[in-house]
UniProtKB/TrEMBL annotation:
Name this protein carries in UniProt: PIG-L deacetylase family protein
InterPro entries linked to this entry: GlcNAc_PI_deacetylase-related, LmbE-like_dom_sf
UniProt source species: Klenkia terrae
Cleavable signal peptide: none
Residue ranges that the Swiss-Prot or TrEMBL entry lists as coiled coil: none
């Protein structure tokens, strides 16, 4: 059984590559946190402009940004920031780390949360494996580095905000058997409603399945455990 997730924090920054990424499970934990009085902000590396087949990026980007803002509001998040990296070509390296470190300094979180950045979405013994997005892989590693960068005044000296070393934990969404988990039983319905706000994206993704049905299937898959509980798992790192 995973250990309970720490509660000795007040402000979190959830970092993802694209609109809808957070809603694939982590939003259920966000709903629980905000209901408990925690302050949660979202940071998106891209606007998801390459994510809707048949829709040009110039049209898709603003639409997906608006869907994400509505989605965040459902689970109690009022501040959503976008970094404007190009969807599909996010690159792990100093520029991404700089932008993330700058955002961490602005938001000054006690907890930084990011999503699964492993090579695959399946366990090591499962073949064929489901390959993870290049953007997800690049972002997850860069977030871990940027937390340290945010507290070092000499790494990116051009950043205007004061260094921030107050992050206590970095939590990375974990598939399989997680070391820590959040009981999200009370957040499931909010998570389903949150993902449903990505209506246009989901309509194109699976046109033959109603959006509400898609959202519930996704949240069930992300939160239901073998013992019938509802949990979202994380691996924790010191900030």
């Amino acid at each position: 059984m995973p250990a309970p997730f720490p509660a000795d924090w007040s402000r979190a920054l959830v970092v993802a590559a694209h609109p809808d990424d957070i809603e694939y499970g982590v939003a259920a934990a966000v709903a629980v946190w905000t209901a408990a009085g925690k302050e949660v902000h979202y940071l998106l590396a891209t606007r998801g402009e390459a994510g809707i087949a048949g829709m040009p990026p110039a049209q898709a980007g603003p639409l997906r940004e608006e869907e994400e803002r509505r989605s965040a509001a459902v689970v109690g998040v009022t501040e959503v920031e976008f970094l404007d990296h190009r969807d599909g070509t996010v690159v792990e390296g100093p520029q991404l780390r700089r932008d993330l470190a700058g955002a961490i300094r602005r938001h000054r979180p006690d907890l930084v949360v990011t999503l699964h950045g492993g090579d695959t979405w399946t366990g090591p013994d499962v073949t064929p494996a489901a390959w993870n997005s290049a953007d997800h892989r690049a972002l997850s590693r860069s977030v871990l580095d940027a937390v340290a960068d945010a507290g070092n005044e000499w790494i990116f000296p051009d950043l205007v905000d004061e260094p921030w070393s107050g992050t206590q934990y970095v939590a990375v969404q974990t598939i399989g058997e997680p070391p820590h988990a959040v009981d999200v039983t009370s957040g499931v319905e909010a998570a389903v409603a949150s993902l449903t706000e990505h209506r246009r994206y989901l309509e194109v993704l699976s046109p033959d399945v109603p959006v509400e049905e898609q959202a519930r299937q996704v949240v069930d898959q992300a939160t239901l455990t073998e013992d019938g509980g509802r949990r979202v798992g994380f691996r924790l790192y010191w900030g």
